[in-house]
């Protein structure tokens, strides 16, 4: 999906399975919604934000068995984008635990965090305030963080989110 990935800041997309990471990446890179299946390993691509700015995005599998491998993607991480399914409140405790664990890795010290509350197009989805509270985002006082609602299927909020990610990388 991309060119030489080492020349652009590395942004890692993580989150539980079925949060919509692969759909989000496909929509960003191709503009289309693609049929996806659970990611085994990773997907990667370069996102051009403007003529001078690109980010290399790594979408890492989120199934429980894959999460032990998340640590292998952190070495050159300049920003973490944690994607949650905002229509599934029952999995928020699991998402909170997974986020807390990955952010405890010393290689992510001071690395900016963007939380994407995906699937805002679905009925009964949580607000970003509810998601923020369930993930205890206010406790992350040691890093820049933002939360944004989005819809990977509709493309809503995606471009703005990654423009914000780039700004956070520049400020960190």
Automatic annotation (TrEMBL):
Check the record and name the Gene3D superfamilies matching this protein: P-loop containing nucleotide triphosphate hydrolases
Q: Which residues bind Mg(2+)?
A: 22, 39
Q: Which SMART domains has this protein been placed in?
A: ARF, SAR
Q: Carries keyword Coiled coil?
A: no
- This protein's UniProt keywords: GTP-binding, Lipoprotein, Magnesium, Metal-binding, Myristate, Nucleotide-binding
Q: Where does GTP bind?
A: 15-22, 62, 118-121
- Alphabetized InterPro entries for the sequence: P-loop_NTPase (IPR027417), Small_GTP-bd (IPR005225), Small_GTPase_ARF (IPR024156), Small_GTPase_ARF/SAR (IPR006689)
Query: Which molecular function terms from Gene Ontology are attached?
Result: GTP binding; GTPase activity; metal ion binding
Summarizing the function annotation, the protein's role is:
May play a role in apoptosis. May act as a tumor suppressor.
Name the NCBIfam families on file: small_GTP
| Family, similarity comment | Belongs to the small GTPase superfamily. Arf family.
Name it: ADP-ribosylation factor-like protein 11
Tell me the organism. Austrofundulus limnaeus
